[in-house]
Specification:
The complex is a heterotrimer of chains A (325), B (298) and C (252).
Chain A lengths: L5 H13 L2 H5 L8 H38 L2 H4 L4 E2 L4 E2 L2 H32 L2 H16 L2 H18 L8 H25 L3 H9 L4 H12 L1 H17 L2 H6 L21 H8 L8 H28 L12
Antiparallel strand pairs in A: 1-2
Chain B lengths: L1 H52 L5 H5 L2 E2 L4 E2 L2 H32 L4 H15 L2 H15 L6 H25 L3 H9 L4 H30 L2 H4 L21 H11 L5 H32 L3
Antiparallel strand pairs in B: 1-2
Helix pairs in contact in B: 1-11, 3-6, 3-8, 3-10, 4-6, 5-6, 6-8, 7-8, 8-11, 10-11
Chain C lengths: L2 E11 L5 E11 L3 E5 L6 H8 L10 E8 L2 E2 L7 H7 E4 L10 H11 L5 H14 L3 H4 L12 H13 L5 E5 L7 H15 L3 E5 L3 H7 L2 E6 L2 E7 H6 L4 H7 L5
Helix pairs in contact in C: 3-6, 4-6
The chains are: A mainly alpha (325), B mainly alpha (298), C alpha/beta (252).
């Protein structure tokens, strides 16, 4: 033991501490029946498979995408010219495209989603909730390609009438994305509002506050951290959306000129770039590696968002319903 | 004088109350209006596709192959492909997801490993679908050399569907009263026997709901199948699981954006079939869940 | 008489820090009705659940001391827990029939132990139900759902269900808490019958019930064992002031 470096010994000690004594003591020795051992092992394997899968996803993205970051100077990767045919892989337009569309979507979806959640949680009578909640679930279930199709065939012409040269713009993408992010935002906001203790509301109403005052000054502040999470997961959902965005944003890999009509210019997102170009690249070419490189970035962005949001909810805690025994 | 002052105060307070009530009413109206603004388009979207697409749907549309550069004929290969892929997704996802749900609900202690597992599931749920597509391409198509095939697509979709099914199945398992477990083990049942005979039978409707919901998502996904299985157009149906197949979502993308001169009706019709397929799965799941709540007798 | 269960200096602290048992030592003899009484949250249930290691289901607790059943340490490595639970039957404060038929409830334990012989099971069903004073009431409807029985019937079914495994020890944790007086007396009635064959450990619903059924008794307070004695001396001439106060109803 003394031969081990100190840090490793420390590491080992934490490991041992993390195996609860119970776990050792509670091994049920009757399980020496081989079928039970097999089944329990399979269940445990399935349990940790999620960790393995996340690891493998990252590994395979790295395997195919790492040349991007090794062979191309980082400065070139963030230039504003995306001309893969000429060997120019400046991702800046794609990043900006994703950013504009996502921010636009959240600006639209957040107030709508939050207010709908307030309506569902605080105002709507029971019978309306019974109708509305399944309806919102239905929205969550509509395939993105169908919404993209509608955006392409019905919404884009409307946007064009607003004065844009084409209907396929960042705004079109944001609107469609906003709708797709709504179910996420609504359901998480609703959970957050629901978690506010009833006593708070009753207390506020008892001292004569109107319902709106109660919502505004008591319920919303109490639900704040849950609402932050709704926004984060909404962003996560929006930034990763592919097909609908690809169909309606025009797919022009240029950094849009900054100005009032920024939203009415075509853009191209990171996701759409992968989807549109992967089919045509030669496997093993630099272009191919760069598309995987974009995938690595997307993976890291969403992993950061979701880990943070997961931290917010608190992943532990005994959720088992209290019984009589 | 004293009286006037108090009357003043009372009028003032009265005025404030009135204003507060007005604000309250305005807020209520605005909130209700916005909620309507969110919900109404959902109905409109479905109606719009239904009205425009219903004319295209016929027996031939559902059972014939596309003809004449896909501008005529039906969508049978794509529909069949999607059904195959959904089936394959189920085979990949169901055992793994149920196992993981049992692990989390029945075996996992409150320790670091469990927190890592939960974090991994949250992350799986958040990974963009196109990244799943890249992963499927890198691992199944190229590394394991399955080629662009139904196997590769099913594996990709199955892994993508895991988190949805795991979390609904875990909920269902946790909802089984703890008493059943205690009583069962007090009668000398092992932990697995308890799960097998007292927990799973009561959790199964909830688990099925989760599975169907997960599969309905998978059926509508496009991005994960782009590079792993989906074909632009195939003259023949797939002969084995190592063949490519057409799939409904990708087919819709193709005919909407890649084929010039495509009759609108066929586009709407395809969208409608996809929508109906996915929504009917969602509906079945909802019905099972409602029935389950009603029938529960503990 | 020989010690069936021997508790030696047992302390138990739950994961949340609650000290449920403090240095408890006692001995339970074969074929007696041992009554464990005391106010709520005095550690009775916690102690009973250690005997058949149902405590395993509440993770994170700190356990010290030794519990011997027939001289065998129940927490020793290599102990067959399922077998231990088959030898020590347990009936809970609330009647807990499993979903399913009366017969299904009764055969559950034996089935899990791999006993499938129908003739043997039928024989045991009749004997267990008779011992639990339920046979006459349910013999014609064994395949009806157990959930349709009355509260008292459910509890007697739970007793019969434990007896199906032919245990050596039967633990009854306040089995009459939710029952009316008639059902209660029927359950008590069945205890005298059971005593012949089993070691019975019971948490009574009241001091009076304890005095009625006990051979020997132990009084617990705040996780400590205050006094242990024969029923006669315990309930008539307790040695400890606290026991006397509790028995005479001055607190609790």
């Amino acid at each position: 033991m003394s031969a081990l470096p100190v840090t490793l010994r420390k590491r080992l000690r934490t490991l041992v501490r993390d195996v609860p004594f119970d776990a050792v003591r509670n091994i049920q020795w009757s399980l020496l029946d081989w079928r039970e051992i097999l089944i329990e092992s399979l269940i445990r394997l399935a349990g940790i498979s999620s960790i393995i899968i996340v690891g493998m996803i990252f590994l395979f993205l790295l395997r195919e995408g790492i040349p991007t970051f090794l062979d191309i100077p980082l400065r070139q990767l963030f230039e504003s010219r995306w001309y893969p045919n000429e060997g120019l892989y400046g991702m800046w337009p794609l990043i900006v495209g994703s950013l504009i569309v996502t921010v636009g979507a959240i600006i639209v979806a957040l107030p709508l989603g939050l207010i709908t959640a307030i309506y569902l949680g605080e105002i709507a009578p029971e019978w309306q909730r019974e109708i509305l909640k399944p309806l919102i679930e239905v929205l969550a279930g509509i395939p993105s390609i169908v919404l993209g199709f509608l955006g392409w065939i019905a919404l884009a012409p409307l946007i064009q009438k607003l004065g844009a040269p084409t209907g396929l713009t960042a705004l079109t993408g944001s609107l469609i994305l906003a709708y797709m992010a709504l179910p996420t935002i609504i359901s998480i906001s609703e959970d957050a509002l629901y978690a506010v203790p009833k006593e708070y509301r009753d207390g506020a109403l008892a001292i004569g506050a109107t319902r709106w005052q109660t919502i505004r000054h008591v319920v919303l502040p109490a639900a704040r951290s849950g609402l932050v999470m709704a926004v984060m997961l909404g962003i996560g959902r929006a930034i990763g959306e592919t097909m609908a965005v690809m169909m309606v944003t025009g797919n022009a890999a240029f950094v849009p000129t900054f100005g009032a009509d920024m939203a009415l210019q075509p853009v191209r997102t990171m996701t759409a770039t992968i989807a549109a170009e992967m089919g045509e690249v030669a496997q093993g070419s630099m272009h191919y590696h760069v598309l995987f490189g974009i995938g690595i970035m997307l993976f890291l962005i969403t992993a950061a968002i979701n880990s943070l949001a997961g931290r917010l909810v608190g992943t532990s805690g005994n959720r088992r319903r209290g019984g009589q025994l | 004088m004293n009286t006037t002052k108090s009357t003043d105060a009372r009028t003032n307070s009265h005025r404030r109350t009135l204003k507060r009530q007005q604000t309250n009413q305005i807020a209520t109206v605005v909130i209700t209006g916005v909620a309507g603004l969110v919900v109404l388009p959902i109905i409109l979207v479905i109606l719009y596709i239904f009205i425009n697409g219903i004319g295209a749907i016929s027996w031939e549309f559902l059972t014939a192959k596309p003809r004449n550069g896909m501008t005529e004929g039906g969508i049978m290969p794509a529909l069949l492909g999607t059904l195959l892929l959904t089936f394959g997704t189920g085979i990949v996802c169901i055992p793994l997801a149920i196992g993981a749900a049992i692990y989390l609900a029945e075996y996992a202690g409150d320790n670091r490993l469990t927190r890592w597992v939960r974090l991994a599931i949250v992350n799986l749920a958040g990974i963009p679908s196109i990244v799943y597509g890249l992963f499927g391409l890198g691992m199944f198509v190229l590394f394991l050399n399955f080629g662009t095939s139904i196997v590769a697509g099913s594996l990709t979709l199955g892994i993508m569907t895991l988190p949805v099914v795991i979390s609904t199945a875990e909920e269902a398992i946790l909802a089984v009263p703890q008493e059943f477990r205690v009583v069962s083990q007090s009668l000398g049942a092992t932990r697995w026997q308890t799960i097998r005979h007292q927990v799973l039978p009561h959790a199964i409707p909830g688990i099925i709901t989760g599975v169907i919901l997960g599969l309905s998502r998978a059926a509508g996904e496009t991005a994960p199948i782009l590079f792993t299985v989906a074909a632009f157009y195939l003259p023949d149906l797939p002969q084995s699981v190592f063949d490519q197949t057409m799939a409904l979502p990708y087919h819709l993308y193709v005919i909407a954006t890649q084929v010039p001169g495509m009759p609108l009706e066929i586009q709407y019709g395809t969208a409608l079939v996809l929508l109906l397929l996915v929504l009917s799965l969602t509906l079945i799941a909802t019905v099972i869940r409602t029935n389950m709540r009603r029938r529960r007798d503990w | 008489m020989q010690a069936k269960i021997s508790v030696q200096n047992v302390s138990y602290t739950y994961a949340d820090g609650t000290e449920a048992l403090k240095h408890v030592s006692l001995t339970i003899r074969a074929n007696e009705i041992f009554v464990l009484f005391g106010p709520a949250r005095s550690g009775k249930t916690t102690l009973l659940r250690l005997f058949n290691r149902l405590s395993d289901l509440t993770p994170g607790a700190d356990y010290r001391g030794t519990i011997l059943v027939d001289g065998q340490d129940v927490f020793a490595l290599g102990v067959n827990v399922t077998d231990l639970r088959r030898r020590i039957g347990m009936v809970f404060a609330v009647p807990t029939p499993l979903p399913g038929s009366i017969r299904g409830n009764l055969t559950y334990g034996p089935h899990m132990a791999g006993i499938r012989d129908t003739a043997l099971l039928n024989e045991r069903i009749e004997r267990s139900l008779t011992q639990a004073a339920l046979w006459d009431e349910v013999k014609d409807r064994l395949d009806h759902p157990a959930s349709r029985l009355s509260g008292g019937q459910k509890q007697r079914l739970c007793i019969a269900r434990s007896l199906m495994l032919e245990p050596e020890v039967l633990i009854l944790d306040n089995p009459t808490s939710g029952l009316d007086p008639i059902s209660t007396s029927m359950v008590e009635e069945s205890l005298y019958e059971l005593k012949q064959q089993y070691t019975v450990i019971m948490v009574p619903h009241s001091v009076q019930q304890g005095a009625r059924v006990a051979t020997r008794a132990a009084f617990m307070l705040d996780g400590e064992l205050v006094e242990i004695d024969t029923a006669e001396r315990m309930f008539k001439h307790p040695k400890d002031q606290r026991t006397e106060d509790y028995i005479t109803g001055r607190f609790g």
